[in-house]
């Protein structure tokens, strides 16, 4: 593991490049720093990166300010994200009333501009350590609190063991990632309570349709993983079809609307001919899932090793090819003309056929025929 990967990760959110650069200079030695130009940028990064330990954010920003970002974090259906330490960076013009309002909304701490290195370092150290303890506690429990499925850490532990066994005995093993399509839209339209009901119901349905030997986990907000021992790529698609069919039947009644969910799936099967870690197999599954989510038609299921259908360009047609095709036609050997040439040959014949039709219309063809 690299030195950078071992460092706690911190997100600095400020529309001022000067402030962000100052934070990087002060914290960069001991922490891996991520930068966001506003709350919207930060929110997107937080949803994609679950390893961020602490957030430092300015209060006043365009697009999405610090208050809105804090609200999104604290109301997140992802329990770990909702508990993330958030330190507000306050400006000279921020009143005590404004600071109290943000504190009441769930800010973990404050730091005032202009800040010193010791201010950032002390808070980064304290809250990164606190967040690490929370993560370690989650690992010890081994299960996702909301669904009862395995946690990410426990799933990886089970996966490493299963993969080692499969490689040693030359057995099949397939890892599957599943995600509820357009879940963010459902959350925004119907709120946290409905979103959590859907997450719980999908987790329960997933647990119900699994085989005894399968392992399932919740690995993201609306993202799940299933490990299928003794299962090839082809057989995994059958299992996925059964899972998706069962989950897609779920209907959630909000009182005003009826919500149906659909699952996209990406799978990666163990290839015993290449050296691969379980972490890499998970990365392959995620790549396949992203490919499935991007599809606009057909079933949203993709395999890491499946090749996309690419239409090969037709061979270049020369004048010699056209002459040979005409010779085949004159000889009555129409079937000898390749399919990819039919359109061009027909185009070459079109002027002649138009000429023949025109001669027929004017009666000239009939006049010529009267000579015989």
How would you sum up this structure, described in words?
- The protein has 372 residues and is of the alpha/beta class.
- The chain folds into three domains: 139 residues, Rossmann fold; 152 residues, Alpha-Beta Plaits (2-Layer Sandwich); 36 residues, no CATH class.
- A five-stranded parallel beta sheet has the order 2-1-3-4-5, sandwiched between helices. The protein has a five-stranded mixed beta sheet with strand order 7-8-6-11-12, sandwiched between helices.
- Strand 4, helix 6 and strand 5 form a beta-alpha-beta unit.
- It is extended and about 95 Å long.
Record keyword descriptors for this entry.
single chain, 372 residues, alpha/beta, Alpha-Beta Plaits, 3 domains, 5-stranded parallel sheet, 14 helices
Quickly count the helices.
14
Say how many strands there are: 12
Which regions are unreliable across 5 or more consecutive residues at pLDDT < 50?
Answer: 1-5, 364-372
Write out the strand line-up for the largest beta sheet, numbering strands in chain order: 2-1-3-4-5
Mean pLDDT: 83
Give me the CATH architecture of the largest domain, please. Answer: 2-Layer Sandwich
Number of domains: 3
Biggest pleated sheet: 5 strands, parallel
Structural category is alpha/beta
The top-level CATH class of the largest domain is Alpha Beta
Oligomer: single chain
CATH superfamily of the largest domain: Reverse transcriptase/Diguanylate cyclase domain
Q: Estimate the strand proportion.
A: 15-25%
Overall geometry comes to: extended
What is the radius of gyration computed over CA atoms, rounded to a whole number of angstroms? Answer: 31 Å
Task: Give helix % range.
Answer: 40-55%
CATH topology name of the largest domain, in short, is Alpha-Beta Plaits
């Amino acid at each position: 593991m690299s030195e950078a990967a071992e460092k706690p990760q911190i997100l600095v959110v400020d529309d001022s490049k000067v402030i962000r650069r100052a934070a990087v200079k002060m914290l960069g030695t001991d922490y891996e720093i991520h930068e966001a130009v506003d709350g919207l940028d930060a929110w997107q990064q937080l949803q994609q990166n679950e390893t961020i330990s602490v957030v430092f954010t300015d209060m006043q920003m365009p697009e999405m300010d610090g208050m809105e970002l804090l609200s999104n974090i604290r109301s997140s259906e992802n329990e770990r994200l909702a508990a993330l330490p958030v330190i507000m960076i306050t400006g000279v013009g921020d009143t005590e009333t404004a600071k109290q309002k943000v504190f009441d909304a769930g800010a973990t701490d404050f730091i005032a501009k202009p800040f010193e290195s010791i201010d950032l370092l002390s808070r980064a150290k304290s809250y990164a350590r606190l967040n690490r303890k929370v993560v370690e506690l989650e690992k010890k429990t081994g299960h996702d609190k909301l669904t009862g499925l395995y946690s990410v850490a426990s799933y990886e532990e089970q996966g490493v063991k299963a993969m080692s066994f499969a490689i040693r005995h030359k057995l099949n093993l397939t890892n599957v990632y599943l995600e509820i399509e357009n879940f963010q839209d459902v959350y925004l339209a119907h709120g946290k309570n409905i979103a959590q009901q859907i997450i719980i119901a999908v987790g329960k349905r997933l647990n119900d349709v699994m085989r005894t030997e399968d392992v399932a986990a919740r690995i993201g907000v609306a993202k799940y993983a299933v490990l299928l021992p003794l299962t090839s790529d082809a057989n995994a698609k059958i299992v996925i079809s059964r899972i998706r069919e069962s989950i897609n039947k779920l209907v959630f009644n909000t009182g005003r609307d009826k919500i149906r969910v659909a699952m996209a799936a990406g799978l990666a099967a163990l290839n015993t001919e290449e050296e691969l870690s379980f972490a890499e197999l998970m990365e392959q599954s995620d790549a396949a899932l992203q490919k499935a989510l991007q599809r606009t038609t057909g079933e949203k299921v993709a395999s890491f090793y499946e090749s996309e259908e690419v239409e090969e360009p037709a061979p270049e047609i020369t004048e010699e090819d056209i002459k040979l095709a005409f010779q085949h036609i004159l000889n009555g050997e129409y079937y000898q003309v390749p399919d990819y040439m039919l359109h061009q040959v027909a185009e070459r014949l079109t002027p002649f056929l138009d000429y023949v039709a025109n001669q027929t219309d004017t009666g000239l063809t009939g006049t010529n025929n009267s000579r015989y």
